[in-house]
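Annex B.
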Amino acid sequence: MIKNVLIAVVTLIVSVQAETYLFWQDAIKNNYALADSPGPNLQIPQDKIYEGLLHVDSYNYRDGDPDVSTFILMHFFKTYIVSFDLNRVRGTITSAKLRGEFLDLYYPDPGIAMNRSGDIQTMVSISKLVNEHDFCGSGYLSADYFACDSRQLSIHHDICSEFNKDTITFITFQGQTSDTSQPSPLWRKFAEIDITDQVQWILDNNDSMKTGAYQIILAGILNSGNGKMSLFGYGSCDSLIGDGANAPEHWTQDGNTMHIVVEGTLTPEPTTPISDSPKECIISFSLQNFPNPFNPITNIAYEMNENQKGLLTIYAINGKPVFYNLVEGKGVYSWNASRMASGVYFCRLVCNGKALTRKVVLFN
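Secretion system C-terminal sorting domain-containing protein: predicted structure tokens.
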């Protein structure tokens, strides 16, 4: 089924309602001015903002070169979007928009415009996340994915089955041309892409990251149109800054603009211990910083079977994840909560679908 969809240049966003959620990596941590207009123009309370990793990877499948500095929608580009937090919640939504700031520059040599008016037929689908160690499955356990010591998660995307497919025709807009003396009509503007069906599918089918994560794929159909759209796609965990990210013409100063705005009702993953026995993977899990409450550092000791990897997540009392880290084997992780509010938190270790949870109290 073909849909005709206009990617509107966002100049004004209607004020969001109470049940509007934002998935934007490090948005609060980096003190982004989310209410700026022109800019994101978002009015969302902090308890509805998820700051976990949101990874964007654009891949040129005509010549095989990855280009992760930008989100590119073009007839020979395939772009992958995965949100850690989106794979940890459930719910029913009325809309979901993928948004990002236009990256609009003109390169005189060799004469490349980052945004070009036209149309692009695009296949929108879902697949399992992949990494260099696990083909289709628990790709979320990639060390690079969490430690941010690699510019890209993987380029081995095509080995996984894609499903929930739909074909959409996007209308794109003209950005800066060879007359660079004129300001771009797209500067400080944000684009929107409707991904409601795909986000709802993930909410209905994810298993809270126990066996992997799902990603959304936008793949331009080869020779289907001459349009082109470029958005700032760097996550803030990337060490490099995308082209033009610190230019005064753009809202962003670090290139981290991709985010998802969801309207509906979401339920975080439960923070209480699950009944499954952890003995198959987790040997012991304890907190060695006593007395508890702590201020501001606690040492979290864990022991899993040799060479086993686990995901250590810390949740606030409302169920919102505030920290996560990949751990392996036996060790101690020191969590510095100096930037967190006083209160009850839950430390949860997940390994091979088994979990243990412990309660800690921060007293500033």
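The chain has a mean pLDDT of 76. Residues 2-267 form one domain. Further annotation is deferred to the next reporting cycle.
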